[in-house]
Amino acid sequence: MDEAPVAAGEDGERAAPASLAVILLISVLVVATCGLIYELLAGTLASYLLGDSVTQFSTVIGTYLFAMGVGSWLSRHVRSNEITVFVRVEILIAALGGWSAAGLFLLFPLVGDFRVALYALVMAIGVLVGLEIPLLIRILRHRFAFRELVSNVLTYDYVGALVASLLFPLILVPKLGMIRTGFVFGLANVGVAIALLVALRRQERVGRDMVAALVVTASLLTGLAFADRLQRWSEVAFYNEPVVYARSTPYQRIVLTRQGGDLRLYLNGNLQFSTRDEYRYHEALVWPVLGRVAAPRQVLILGGGDGLAAREVLRDARVGHVTLVDLDPEMARLFRDTPQLAQLNAGSLASPRLTMVNADAFRWVREETGQFDAIIIDFPDPTEFSLGKLYTESFYREVARLLARDGVMTVQSTSPLIAPRSYWTVASTLEAAGLTVRGYHAYVPSFGEWGFTMAAHAPISDGVRLPAHLRYLTAASERAMFDFQPDMARRPAPVNRLDNQALVRSFAEEWGRYEG
Amino acid sequence: MRDGKFPEATGPIEDVDVLIAGGGVSGLAAGWRLAEAGFTRFTLLELEDRTGGNARSGRNATSAYPLGAHYLPVPNREARALHHMLKQFGMIVGEERGAPVYDPLQLCADLEERLLWRGKWQEGLFPQTALSADDKEQYARFTAGMAAFRAAKGADGKPAFALPMALSSSDPQFRALDQQSFAQWLDANGYRSSLLRAYLRYCCRDDYGSEPEHVSAWAGIHYFAGRRGWAAGEDGDRELTWPEGNGRLVGLMARRIVGKIRTGHSVFRVERVDAGVVVHAFDHGISRTRRIRARAAVLAMPHFVAQRVAPQFAAKGDFSYAPWVVANVTVNRPPEGKGAPLAWDNVSAASESLGYVVATHQTSSADGGPTVLTWYLPLSRETPRQARKILMTRSLEAWQEVVRDDLLAMNPDLAGAIERIDVWQWGHAMVRPTPGFLSEPARLAATASSGPVWFAHSDLSGLSLFEEAHYRGVVAAESVLAHLSHPFESLV
Ligand SMILES: Cc1cc2nc3c(=O)[nH]c(=O)nc-3n(C[C@H](O)[C@H](O)[C@H](O)COP(=O)(O)OP(=O)(O)OC[C@H]3O[C@@H](n4cnc5c(N)ncnc54)[C@H](O)[C@@H]3O)c2cc1C
């Protein structure tokens, strides 16, 4: 750093040393690039999380430009020490802008109204960015002729904008991802602040600002280092549709998304239903069973805390009572007490004809002594050893004990097309538990070709009595469900036992192959 | 007790036919055996306020959990009394081509074990990646060698390695293995692969709480060659386990003899009087000493205690014991990790601990929610004396820190999930089968007693295992029945 003479400015303040001018001009470029990047980040994020990109982009850009205007206007209130103020503005932008993407992703599932958080942040960053250029022009005004100055600054400003707008879609988003991009540009902002502080250290007391700048740098570097983990935490990055509800219970992560009229439930990232076609799934799950039981008075549902299977069952006036066993009380609460969701299951969970039991079905069936005319098993797919236990011979033996002599049960049993071995493992296992079985399948667009396995103590008949109000099943289409084309046809499959967990292993293999 | 500081008895002398001192697996097995023969005139005195000894268990709002012993491998065919008992307890549910069928819910569910190896969990306990050709060759050779020992029979027609060990062949070619340490034997046989040795060290510490340098080669080999689990299908090499570990078995045994058990009694003197014995026991409940006259006694306590309380009967010997620390860690969500999913037994190749077992593995199908992890550490590097000094001086907080650090090193995902850590210290946890233990005179004398005092403890086998404790209890009880001329049909 050279020993440039320090001249007193008009306002009695000290003008910048020569080398500072260079740093400052470079900062225009950096600052301009960063400013635009944050704007693009906010716009992209908003359209990503809230959908409707045209609206999101124009409102974000509008707000941002307006906020910049506010910043420019506010700059008049900065009466002295422009450089110090500029440095502090840079540190603040670095912190806010740098963390903006990560923060918004993380905040999304947590805050009630995401828009408030989003626009508050856009406003704050916009105001700060709006302060930058006016301050820089004032700092540099002693170095350059006014004409040259404005031309220089604006040139760099527009070049920066070009750089940003090209980098963003071509390199940053695809290569770095939004979260990392935020941190990288935050570092650039704070880099400008630090460079200025170093240049100024002879004339100013920069200690405190330097500490602040270093703290921000450290936080950004940490964020950058843990960007992958942040990305995972900020699960919204995972879904293709806007997330409208997300909550962790001790047992699972519940996420609801909505895109247009389509509401979807995910448990631990696995799709459970889409309102577009869940009726297909639930009619196929429930009616082939109810239609084969002469008097389904007592019905047991294992899993299915969303109440959708219960909705179908309760439509049957012959059903006197439904016992629903689901592990997670949070699911039940959500689907019983949220009007929108309770509407989906027609209030089934609040029905006086239904008893909700929050228990681990694996233990519950062993202690239960009641008899059920129909049993509907709707567990999550056997993706884990713990869940795999709910598809074992030992488990089905206990369930069979609860099934009335002339009762019928059914088990959701994954896709016979994608995972035929896994699908037929369920049948083998039910047979090993002493039941007769019949497999059937239905086409549910959001899942694909989906399989179920019916089981009973006695042979299962063809004859089925279906109610008239169904949207998917008719006597003819029901009959067709039992027909398996060669690519799904029965094949040898092992019995899934507690000690071999054959199903979990084949499920992982077959779906792994399918998903690549 | 050590200084005989208990007060002398004041009340009248009590009478009973048989007195069992000690309510661990061996004492309870003795009581169970007497009850099986329809013999009811016995009392069991236990020092602690609960029976079970090293197989005791605890429980909190989340789950039951073991404080010590946590599993029983499917027993060998020769463990007849044990089969009889498991059938009675509903653990053996049937027969298939003559072989017992075990209740699948009580056999350890898949996934049984996983190893954290080079930052990733894998199934099984022997590393599967980054093995040199030499490692593979030695592992294969070791496995084949052990299979040969498992099948081997001595000149007397008995299996070279049996479980209970008392039924093993006395053929000198196998007994000779007891003259050297397992480590020496491994060296001599060219087993030097560090991965193989680390695995074998794990096994020795798991079963005996001791280093391969300190256990007899006979015992080291017994671990691999002694088990020929007898079960239908392929269940022979499986294990039985429950949330409370072997607490399940001792609980069921105790339930069959409830009226006979008196807890909170320290037996501190056993004297010969006429043809029988008088047993002095301090009743901690009323702080008074009782005197009980019995026609026969079964001392089902560690031999170092028996030596002191019954010097007239118990030969003084050189028994040494490995200290252990067991911690029960309540977590609000289950551990995860890269690679193989959570298993029942989870071990890290990089840790000095033996890892942890998951209490809810058998009972729960939830892939979330709270659970209890039982963490094990044998203090085998130090001499037993040094180790016991550590146990006496290290604070609870210090142990909790050790446990927490070790767990978080294995499962960083547990950060913030640990709700409490209960630490249990076992000063004399497991008898050490040191070289020469097979011919240890005091051990042999204890097994050859002719009454009126018999010994029943896993110490008599030198192998601290459920099967051994059970066998010793049953054998002692049958000796007592014979002595009292009570009719019975032997189960051994
Ligand atoms: C941490 C740990 C883990 C283990 N894990 C396993 C396992 O997984 N599987 C396995 O098979 N084995 C395991 N073991 C070995 C276990 O020790 C044996 O399986 C078995 O429980 C031993 O029973 P025991 O009756 O021989 O001895 P103990 O359990 O020692 O029983 C002796 C009993 O006598 C009582 N007693 C002592 N002195 C007196 C006195 N003066 N008066 C009255 N009563 C007295 C004691 O309180 C105790 O209850 C483990 C041991 C430990 C310590």
CATH superfamily of the largest domain in chain B: FAD/NAD(P)-binding domain
Q: Biggest sheet of chain A: strands side by side, in what order?
A: 7-6-5-8-9-11-10
- Looking at the overall shape, the CATH architecture of the largest domain in chain A is 3-Layer(aba) Sandwich
Give the mean pLDDT of chain A: 88
Average pLDDT metric of chain B: 95
- Ligand names: flavin-adenine dinucleotide
Beta-strand content of chain A = 5-15%
Oligomer: heterodimer
Q: Approximately how much beta-strand content do the residues of chain B carry? A: 15-25%
Structural class of chain B: alpha/beta
Please state the second-level CATH architecture of the largest domain in chain B: 3-Layer(bba) Sandwich
**Biggest protein-protein interface?**
A-B, 27 and 22 residues
User: Could you name the CATH topology of the largest domain in chain B?
Assistant: FAD/NAD(P)-binding domain
Counted up, domains of chain B total 3
Quick one: CATH class of the largest domain in chain B?
A: Alpha Beta
Q: What is the tally of helical segments of chain B? A: 13
CA-CA gap between termini of chain B: 34 Å
What is the assigned CATH homologous superfamily of the largest domain in chain A?
Vaccinia Virus protein VP39
Enzyme class (chain A): transferase
Protein name (chain A): Polyamine aminopropyltransferase
Pathway (chain A): Amine and polyamine biosynthesis; spermidine biosynthesis; spermidine from putrescine: step 1/1
InterPro entries (chain A): PABS, PABS_CS, SAM-dependent_MTases_sf, Spermi_synthase
Task: Set out the fold topology.
The complex is a heterodimer of chains A (516) and B (492).
Chain A: H1 18-50, H2 53-74, H3 82-107, H4 114-140, H5 146-200, H6 207-225, H7 227-233, E1 243-248, E2 253-259, E3 262-267, E4 270-274, H8 278-290, E5 298-303, H9 308-315, E6 321-326, H10 329-337, H11 339-344, E7 354-358, H12 361-367, E8 372-378, H13 385-388, H14 393-402, E9 403-412, H15 420-432, E10 436-444, E11 448-456, H16 475-480, H17 502-515
Helix pairs in contact in A: 1-2, 1-3, 1-4, 1-5, 2-4, 3-4, 3-5, 3-6, 5-6, 8-9, 15-17
Chain B: E1 14-21, H1 25-36, E2 42-45, E3 57-59, E4 64-66, E5 71-73, H2 80-88, E6 92-96, E7 99-102, E8 113-117, E9 120-123, H3 133-151, H4 172-175, H5 182-188, H6 194-208, H7 217-225, E10 239-241, H8 247-256, E11 261-262, E12 265-273, E13 276-283, E14 288-299, H9 303-309, E15 321-331, E16 345-348, E17 356-358, E18 371-378, H10 384-393, H11 396-410, E19 418-431, H12 441-447, E20 453-455, H13 466-483
Parallel strand pairs in B: 1-2, 1-14, 2-11, 8-16, 14-20
Antiparallel strand pairs in B: 3-4, 5-10, 6-7, 8-9, 12-13, 13-14, 15-18, 15-19, 16-17, 17-18
Helix pairs in contact in B: 1-8, 1-13, 3-7, 5-7
The structure holds flavin-adenine dinucleotide (FAD).
Flavin-adenine dinucleotide is lined by residues 21-27, 45-48, 53-55, 68-72, 246, 266-267, 300-302, 305, 309, 324, 326, 426, 429-430, 457-458, 464-466, 469 of chain B.
